[in-house]
Amino acid sequence: MSFLGSYPPEVYTGDSGEASAWIRRNDTPPDITYANGGTCEYLVRGDQSRGNLGVYRWTFGEGESGPGPHFHRTISEHFYILRGTVQLFDGNEWVQGQAGDYLYVPEGGIHGFKGAGRAQMLLSFAPGGPREDYFETLASGREMSDEERAELMFRHDNTWL
Question: What is the value of pTM for the model shown?
Fold first, then answer.
């Protein structure tokens, strides 16, 4: 069967569908807790989606944290604010986002984000690279040399401005 329009090629070729969905309950503990009290929950890891996307629930700690302006060469990034306010850098300026606001950043788009006070957002990447290693390495608190940090950023497609 072929589809009209610009849908990608078929991935599932069976005739009856399959029971392959899963649910992550809201009371599941966070996958990562940072030293500042912020958390990250893996809703869909890149490897679970065959590399199509990664989706994470990000909760900021009490104090302000988040990355300054940067871009990615291979992945788009998406932000949907669930609770509180988050400062979003849209490539031109810092804007205050609030619950219900959404920011899409295509490959190469300059962006950044900062939040505090237990603000919460969905953070997603497409395609779904191995962002979990990036989050876990930063959460470890391990001291890194400038060369180690540069290698981590290169390996995870982060170019800082």
Answer: 0.90
